[in-house]
Amino acid sequence: MNVRSRQQYDDWKETNNPDLEAFRDQEPADWTYLIVKMGLADPLDVQRAAELAITVERLEGRRQFLDETLVAQGQAGLSRLVSEVVATEEWAIAVWPAIEGPVIKRSETETLDLRLHVADRVDFRRIDGSAVSKDLVWDAFEDALKASRAVPAKRDGARWATADKLLNEDDSAAKVSSWSIRRLGAPHPSVVEAAHPRLPSVAVTSLTVGAWGNDVADHLSRLIGYGFTSTRDVATDLYGKRNDVQYGESRARMHGQMLRGSINKRVWGHYSADQEALADLIGDPDVTNVFTVYLSQPKRDFKAEAERLWARQQERQRAGTVTAAEDWISREDVVVHLTKAHQEIESMLERVTGENLFVKTLSGAKADSTRAGKYRQCLDIAAEVLAMWFERRLVNRTDVEAVWDSIARKPPRLQTDGDRHTLMLAEYFRYVENAEKGRQ
User: Fold this and answer.
1) 207: number of CA atoms within 13 Å, CB side?
2) Interacting residues of 151 by C-beta distance below 8 A, sequence separation 6+
């Protein structure tokens, strides 16, 4: 805004002997009226500022609508996928709801149920019994897989009848392709009207997907009422590739843009070992509106990531779709690269100070490498981070609990999966908090 000089204001004040009471009834809701009359601002600049504010409001409303649309598409995506597969009369599909999480014994008579419907496991096979691959499935059902936000999954046991021998020991002739349609870690919109002033947005980062950073980010978003997304999903939408064949730089590019953009009421998850963007994993010292939670991983996770990438490469080599950039990447090369990236970040952390970074070193215990162990660890990290935000007054506890209470007052039949997720997290946070108090 082109603000006039203080001298011009002084001249106006002295020569006109203004009666400020006269402005009381003149459009009192418009604070710009007075400064325009005083000559402190150009009316055209004020008009442009007002138009810009209106545009921002419209875009915010549009973004909220699109967020809600994405959630609806994801929920309807499974039905669409099943319909399209059956309609081909050449493919078959099996769906298995994945319910994960422990039930904690609180006392002789009380339990705390932490189970969630985290995903729907989906298996594809050809009716003629011929071999299948992820590439073949993607080519056949790309649009439906995108709409449902399905991701390739590790084959963790046949869900088809084993007597049919639908799974071959020889991976080159695998008869089933396994995928997962995520519920935990799926994008969702914010449920609060305004951002927490000292915590506008949050990024949860790690070197590899094995940190389960997207799950931690989703938990945190539910706890404080924010929306959630991941750079993996954004990159899939933008580049059109399924997420397991994205290179780390595509996700890193999305993270950098989100980190330095003006994003409010949002938590996002990001993982990448892209050499050019390692510093972004622990935030940007010049960016104050994003709080970063960095998950530092044990070497065991790097070995698991190497096995995942190697298996992907072998499958794509067999399918003839491997690129030159991927060819002959050994397991050892992956572990060396990730270990070096980890060491570089640890060196950076020694020089970093600031209120907008929280580093959590993940457990290296073997028990925590299981799905059950990682699930519980993600809940514990979310509870620890929220307690830290309360302690630093980055988030007002009264405001957060008001969100929880408003959801709890809904009739159970009107509660969404997201509502039940939030209430479970709130109950677990209070359980952990009371347990901590009992140890003190």
Assistant:
1) 31
2) 179, 180, 181, 182, 242, 243, 244
pLDDT in tens, 313-338: 776 666 665 554 445 567 888 888 89
SS3 category, 325 = coil
Cα-Cα-Cα-Cα dihedral sign, residues 123, 129, 131, 135: negative
91-100/201-206 β-pairing: unpaired
Burial letters 207-221, b for 16+ CB under 10 A, else e: bbbbbbbbbbbbbbb
Taking only the tens place, the pLDDT of each residue in 133-180 is 888 998 999 888 888 888 888 765 445 544 444 444 444 457 888 898
Strand-by-strand arrangement of the 266-271 sheet: 227-230, 266-271, 201-206, 290-296, 357-361
Strands (E), 84-142: 91-100, 103-105, 111-113, 116-126
- Contact at 8 Å (CB) between 284 and 259? yes
Characterise 129 by phi-psi region: left (phi > 0), alpha (psi -120 to 50), beta (else): left
pLDDT digits (tens, 9 = 90+) for 51-98: 665 565 556 555 555 555 555 555 567 888 999 999 999 999 999 888
CB 150 within 8 A of CB 122: yes
Cα distances (Å, whole numbers) of residue 129 to 34, 82, 90, 91, 274? 78, 19, 10, 9, 40
Q: Where are the domains of the chain?
A: 77-182, 201-439
CATH topology of domain 201-439: Rossmann fold (3.40.50)
Residues 251 and 272: beta-carbon distance below 8 Å: yes
> Above 70 in pLDDT, residue 372?
yes
Q: Where are the alpha helices (DSSP H) in 350-440?
A: 371-392, 397-408, 417-439
CA distance readout (Å), 348 to 61, 202, 259, 335: 39, 20, 18, 20
What would the two tokens of residue 150 be? 């399905």
Task: Decide if 189 contacts 227 (C-beta within 8 A).
Answer: yes
Cα–Cα distance, 438 to 95 (Å, whole number)? 43
Residue 262's CB is within 10 A of a number of other CB atoms, namely: 9
- Quote the strand ranges of 217-376, DSSP E: 227-230, 266-271, 290-296, 357-361
Helix (H, G, I), strand (E, B) or coil at 17: coil
